[in-house]
Amino acid sequence: MELSKKFYHSMKKLLFTFTILSPLTVVLSQLNCNSYNDAPCKEACKLVNLAEPYQGFKDSQKMLDMAIKLCPNMDYAYREKSVPYLKRGDFITWKKLIDKAVEINPKNNLGYRGWCKYQFLRDYKGALTDLKKLKNMMNDIGFSQNGDYNLEIVIGLCYKALDQKSKAIELIEKQLSKKEYVPLNHDYIHLGVLYLEVGNREKAIKCFNKEIEISDYYAETYYYLAMAYKEKNKELYTQNLIKAKEFYLKDFRMKDPYTHPMDAIYLQQIIEELKK
After folding, report:
1. Where are the domains of the chain?
2. End-to-end CA distance of the chain
3. 32, 108, 160, 169: least surrounded by Cβ within 10 Å?
4. Bridge partner residues of 143 (DSSP)
5. H-helix or E-strand spanning residue 16
6. Model-level pTM?
7. CATH fold of 1-104, please?
């Protein structure tokens, strides 16, 4: 079943209108439709490419439905259709769609589903299950959807959330020790907080200073550095809290448009500490 040129161009014109009306429109990477030999799947791919930049619009979702009808095994169409439900908090509908994508193509979708379970649902056991399955399939399990984390670090953070902090430290340290690994912006913040939580303040301080060397953009680094100095050096404790507040007021902090990241702080926490 081939998509008519008239329909294709009419939908393209309709979605172009959204570009004018919506300042939130973003241009995303396009699927390579030439990789599909099957004509219906090639047409489905074109629909997905048309729909993707207008994620969440009613007509975009309709086009993804059509793509799925044309090519029932196109996992990316299911995944794309699931995203607006995830962002709106309709996790039941999201799960039905993303589970179908994983069923069709586990290698391409287990990492994404595992990350979403960690970040959105706080389903740490479920996230671990997905990411461990992926590790059994491939050596490099990739990165989080927002690009902030290597998924090996996310595995460690899942163990932290499940109160297995020693295991979390072991896994994160192992990842950071790999010669080919380039630390990402939050890695040493999380590791430092873990050391702080298990009472190893000296190692925590080393981690936060390492974070400052790598990426001096987060109020959290200075807040937790202050906490590490709280009992041993009141001057450095206060200095780092003041720095944390300055950074926070400049919006230099850990943040996500949809959720509250692990170990992210609130301004009130800094203010309360400064009162002490």
Report:
1. 1-104
2. 71
3. 32
4. 150
5. helix 5-21
6. 0.88
7. 1.25.40
